[in-house]
Amino acid sequence: MRDAIESIVSALAHNGLVLRGGFIFADDEEAPSGPTGLSAKSALLVGQAGAAPWPHFLRWRERQPQTMANPLDTWAREVIGAVAKDFGARAVSPSDRPYLPFQQWAMRAEKLKPSPLGILMHPRYGLWHAYRGALLFEDGIAFPEIQEAIHLCDACVEKPCLKSCPVDAYSLDGFAYQACLAHVRGANGAPCRTGGCLDRNACPYGTAYRYPPEVQAFHMASFAGL
Q: Which residue range or ranges hold the 4Fe-4S ferredoxin-type domain (predicted)?
């Protein structure tokens, strides 16, 4: 199976995606269905580190209707779906309905914990990573065990991620969604619209993987419906 995993890694790399760990569902666990409708026995998480998929996505998007809704989700489904077909898996996405527990799967696969912003903190990538989908298999695919990572947020005393937003959108009490949305859409929200979330950018970890401003602007426009 090691050869198959290496082949999957290579196939994903053609579009800037990476394998983000995997796990085997417990016998008594209610698992989603695999490619033939039987319960899946294992899952491999697919995602990105930094903005590596961006140029691949842009080339694909040039050939699509510019009015397409959720183009990044559509691209990821297409790319991961093709890999799933080649390797006998079912591809699923974080935006599929009903929602699948992707964050719980990610914590399980990579042994990560959430940051104060809700994004999982990665020991290398910081907050600059994402999960784009998963490959579900109906046989047990053993993925190498990953050691529990140091949770960098525990070592961060200053917590600049909770002090940089002008409307205090993030706090230990959670995310003030409406306050954030109103600010991003408003007259004073230009820095967020063009350069991304100020709290996220204030995090000192994983800065080598920080998304470029145009990528952050794309995600902020999607969030704000602009």
A: 142-175
pLDDT > 90 in the chain, percent:
88
Claim to verify: residue 35 and residue 140 sit in the same structural domain:
yes
Q: Identify which has the larger pLDDT, 59 or 149.
A: 59
Average pLDDT value for the chain: 94
Q: What span, in angstroms and rounded, lies between the C-alpha atoms of 85 and 91?
A: 8
Token reading at 210: 């920080």
- Joined tokens for residue 217: 């602007």
Total length of the chain = 226
Residue 53: CB partners within 8 Å, gap ≥ 6? 15, 16, 17, 76, 132
pLDDT of 1 reads: 61
With beta carbons less than 8 A apart as the criterion, state whether 109 and 21 touch.
Answer: yes
Clarify whether residues 96 and 178 are in a common domain: no
Shared domain for 120 and 145, answered yes or no, is yes
pTM of this prediction?
A: 0.93
- Give the residue from 128, 47, 138 showing the smallest Cα distance to 93: 47
Closest to 211 (Cα-Cα) out of 201, 203, 202, 224: 201
Q: Which domain, by its residues, includes 210?
A: 156-224
Name the token pair of 37. 């409708």
Out of 151, 186, 207, pick the residue that ends a domain.
151
